[in-house]
# Entry
Amino acid sequence: MQAPAVPDPLATPARIAFAGDWHANTRWGIAAIQYAADLGADVIVQLGDFGYEFRAAFLDGLDRALTRTGLRLLFVDGNHEDFPVLLRYPIRPNGLRQITDRIWHLPRGFRWVWGRVRWLALGGAHSVDRPRREPGTSWWREEAITDSDIERSIAGGPADVLVSHDCPSGVDIPGLAESAHLWPAEEIEAAEAHRSRMRIVVDAVRPRAIWHGHFHRQYSTSTDLGYGPVVVHGLDCDGSSLDRNVMVVALDDIPVAPGDSVDAGPRNALAAG
# Structure
């Protein structure tokens, strides 16, 4: 029997499933893939804290589910990823890291176009539980965005959608302030500083929509970040419920900046470097 063709990870979809943190939970990931397929999604954009140690059992299980449903999965890195393992996967000519036939990593600053919508990926966040973790085993310094990540993300100009793990400052995340007392004050301060660095990117590229994970809260809000209304969607994590972890949206329903048009250049690129 001939093996199924490997799909183009950047083929333009009609419907996109956004998924919050999975934390290398194989059973949950398989269920979420089926849920997205049942809702008519063509692709899953997973918002970080995806593979943790990127073990074969997790990746193979998800790849089989993706093959069975005909889906493909793109993910941004979270703060809970084994970066030395992840970064060993080479970047392919399309600008993505290929993890399996149907799973691809979106490097920080990666841009692409689906339809009329310009997309920007920016993984990373600060771990407020860092003091409880072991460097190189359960915590990695590469979790935080760097100056180079910021510069690369900004260099490509405006974007309509930002897919990220962290959420920029200026967005009121429900319940976040009430839970701050659970973590050391210096870690909360560092997390807020990371959000402020995310905001530098947002102020420069001015997305009309943001999807993020990290905070394990499902919500949607419209807020003014100084250049007009921005719709922000946060998604919950594994162990919540599938309808809180996965959101399916038609590409035609995603907002774009008024009067802006997509140029005729390459549909995908790392913005710089």
The chain has one domain: 15-257. The chain is about 25% helix and 20% strand. The longest strand covers residues 117-122. The CA atoms of residues 12 and 114 lie 5 Å apart.
